[in-house]
Amino acid sequence: MRHHYRISLLLLFAATLFSCSKPQKETPVASDDNPLLKAWEGPYGGLPPFDKVEHKHFIPAFEAATAANLADIDKITAQTAAPDFDNTILALEQAGKPFSRLQTFLNIWANNMNDSSFQKIESELTPRLAAFNDQIIQNGKLFARIKTVYESEALKSLTPEQQRLTWLYYTNFVHSGAQLDSTAKQRLSDINQKLAALFTKFSQHVLADENDQYVTISKKEDLAGLPQSLIDGAAATAADKKQENVWLISNTRSSVDPFLTFSTNRELREKVWRMFINRGDNGNANDNNAIITDILQLRAERAKLLGFKTHAHLMLDNKMAKTPERAMELMEEVWKPAVARVKVEVADMQAIAQKEGANIKIAPWDYRFYAEKVRKQRYDLDQNEVKPYMQLDKMREGMFWAAGELFGFTFTPLDSVPVYHPDVKVWEVKDKTSGRTVGVWYFDPYARPGKRSGAWMNTYRNQHKLDGGMLPMVSNNSNFIKGKPGEPVLISLDDATTLFHEFGHALHGLSSDVTYPSLQSPNVASDYVEFPSQLNERWFLTPEVLNTFALHYQTGKPIPKELVDKIRKTKSFNSGFTTVEYLASALIDMKLHLEGDKKIDPDQYERETLTALGMPAEIVMRHRTPQFLHIFADDGYSAGYYSYLWSDVISADAFTAFTEAGGPYDKTVSDRYKQHVLSVGNTIDPAEGYKQFRGRDPKINALMEVRGFAKPK
Fold first, then answer.
1. Helices (H), 462-599
2. Which domain holds residue 261?
3. Cβ atoms within 10 A of the Cβ of 443, count?
4. Most exposed residue of 97, 547, 694, 703, measured as fewest CB within 10 angstroms of its CB?
5. Same domain, 465 and 511
6. Do 196 and 221 lie in a common domain?
7. How confident is the model at residue 27 (pLDDT cuts 50, 70, 90)?
8. How many CB atoms lie within 10 A of CB 562?
9. For residue 434, what is the domain's CATH number?
10. How far apart, in Å, are the Cα atoms of 462 and each of 22, 102, 104, 562?
11. Measured distance CA(306)–CA(311) in Å, rounded
């Protein structure tokens, strides 16, 4: 799929366990003047002091924050009073505030500002973070108190939200090894520290290949077919690297995909394609294959220690799918019709190639190029004709408008807010009916060295109602390529869809209305968290958005109706390709983690498994194993990449609730959706929340119809 909503299992748990609350009664820290630790000051409950952060602050901040956090835990375990919700669970919710603030900065710098200097800090701190996390999880006195509250009769008299929070703590501790004996705990801690170090190496290797590799174009004729915006971006990249009279195609999806779509130079298409799909797989210092083997072995051992058959069974135990078998069943149901559709798509492309006199067999570096030709022939739709209407700033305004119509949000730019890079812009979000401020939204749209590729959402601060409450603070991060200075950035249809998708995650966070920070949106099961984002994509192509915000960057005129009609007719176009390239990655992920402790050669396993699945030769996995950051940069989406398909079943079904009512902007349905999905966070089982919104469980029919596949019988 299009995006990365990724948080490592370690950091996710720590973030929920030690979420920040309104600053009060914090354990003093030794480095109280360190900007990474100080309580945030200013409006909106305080703003992160990004402008004061230096690399020298990180390690001292870690030392001080972890010490203060452990002191908070000691206060809880030293109590003589019997464990209850307030003195144990609530106390944990309010512990470790400096550490929570530190984590925000660590995540931001690791994903957005990861230069060679910070990589040394990251390499040192990641295993130490794992050890720190284990030190808390393996605190026998602490877990005994949590277990007492969880098993007490008094639990039944707590509010549903308090019961859910208690369940969350108990389950997370159990899944993290709190019930193991001392020998097993020590081994588990060793495994977690080794994994943390391997995750960091894997990420840094992929980032190095993306930063350091590019294809140089020195002849103007080799730019044939490319849109001007991509040419300008390639020239800007060359200028950044101080290279003259050349154009550089970066090793990131935002550069590679449009190049493969429009370049008429087949030899260069293959060269760019191979550069991109071999990230982390070049047999050099950045090769990730041995790292993957080690990660899989360690995960399998950890799962057995925790009493699970495989890592996949461990990871799905508290997800909506519950078991790997249910996830596999869904993927296999969609796989066969998707592959069948690919055969039709390839035949159409091959026919065009032959008609044009190209004596070739469609290869992976041809797929996007000839798919675009089929699009032009069948629908008379040229993406280069559409792109002048897709201005990044206007599309952002369009998603603001849709959020206002659906959920009553308004967005006002904030000019004097500290940011970690000049590219970052900030908005205040309000409820337009009450005028109440509901949160702060950060936007970091452009690619640069040290920033990982892709698009994602982060939560900088959790929403909650404790101690007077705290506003949510969220961000969207993308990798659009800048063009000429002063000119609008033009994006593709797919890019605009991604923009709306990631903003769906942000809206989930901004809509959160919970009491306890650990339960805030979008801190829900990974196979449910993608539902709001995938649903939000569907508002991009509504007439209300396109007619008002898809404006030509030179004339200012709205996109013509006939062009919009062509776009809508292509909604299931190329669905075989998009489904297979994603689903191949999801199936490899799940199958790898169902192998248990079998020693895996990643390249061989990928090749043989795809052959057995009947993978079309004309397509490669969207994320090949050596660059699969979702599953090898942390634990968060491991054995969980299926989540995008699982969530898309739900989102397709949910959108029919709007279309069956008064249309995409039906207020009654959007209010019900906000009430039962967006605002409730993890206060309720997601299956129950969806049923309250929809009146029933989701059905797969809507997804199969949207993708143009045969409906299940």
1. 493-510, 526-537, 543-549, 561-569, 575-594
2. 213-277
3. 20
4. 547
5. yes
6. no
7. low
8. 8
9. 1.10.1370.40
10. 11, 14, 11, 44
11. 10
**Are 413 and 447 contained in the same domain?**
yes
Residues 63 and 36 sit within 8 Å (Cβ to Cβ) = no
Lookup: tokens for 708: 């143009």
Bond from prior residue into 522 cis (ω within 30 degrees of 0): yes
Q: pLDDT value at position 32?
A: 64
Let me know: does 311 contact 589? Beta carbons within 8 Å. Answer: no
Residue 34, in any domain of the structure: yes
pTM of this prediction exceeds 0.85: yes
pLDDT digits (tens, 9 = 90+) for 545-562: 999 999 999 999 999 999
Residue where a domain terminates, one of 542, 569, 596: 569
Domain assignment present for 494: yes
Q: pLDDT band at 121, cuts 50/70/90?
A: very high
User: Which residue in the list 93, 345, 372, 502 is annotated as catalytic?
Assistant: 502
Predicted confidence band of residue 662 (pLDDT cuts 50, 70, 90): very high
Contact of 108 with 419, CB cutoff 8 Å: no
What tokens were used for 594? 């169902």
**Which of 546, 569, 592 is where one domain is finished?**
569
User: Is the alpha carbon torsion for 567, 533, 43, 420 positive or negative?
Assistant: negative
Q: What is the 3-state secondary structure (H, E, C) of 380-402?
A: CCCHHHHHHHCEHHHHHHHHHHH
Residues 202 and 217 in one domain: no
Task: Tell me the average pLDDT of the chain.
Answer: 93
CA distance 309 to 292: 20
Least confident of 8-12, 686-690, 706-710: 8-12
Cβ contacts of residue 416 below 8 Å, gap of 6+? none
412 and 527 both lie in a single domain: yes
Candidates 552, 530, 543; CA nearest to 645 is 530
| Bridge partners for 480 per DSSP | 446
Bridge partners of residue 660, in order along the sequence:
none
Please report the pLDDT score of residue 46 as a whole number. 97
Residues 600, 601, 603, 609: is their CA dihedral positive or negative? negative
Residue 64: which H helix or E strand, with range? helix 58-77
pLDDT at 5: 29
Angle at 288 between CA 285 and CA 293, to 5 degrees: 130
Cα Dmax for the chain:
85
pLDDT at 25 over 80: no
Instruction: Write b or e for each residue in 582-597: b if 16 or more Cβ atoms lie within 10 A of its Cβ, otherwise e.
Output: bbbbbbbbbbbbbbbe
Dihedrals phi, psi of 445, to nearest 5 degrees: -90, -20
Same-domain pairing of 194 and 248: no
Give yes or no: 502 in active site. yes
Cβ neighbours around 377 below 10 Å, total: 13
424 and 508 both lie in a single domain: yes
Single-letter code of the amino acid located at 147: K
Q: How many CB atoms lie within 10 A of CB 521?
A: 28
Total count of domains within the chain: 3
- Nearest to 251, CA basis, from 229, 273, 276, 271: 276
Residues 48 and 170 in one domain: yes
Question: Has residue 195 been placed in a domain?
Answer: yes
For the chain, how far is it from start to end, CA to CA, in angstroms? 26
**C-alpha dihedral over 137, 323, 629, 495, to 10 degrees?**
-120
Residue 375 has phi, psi (to 5 degrees) of -60, -45
What single DSSP character describes residue 153?
G
What sign does the dihedral 576-578-583-585 (CA atoms) show?
positive
Burial of 190 by CB count in 10 Å (0-12 exposed, 13-18 middle, 19+ buried)?
middle
- The answer to whether the beta carbons of residues 491 and 473 sit under 8 Å apart is no
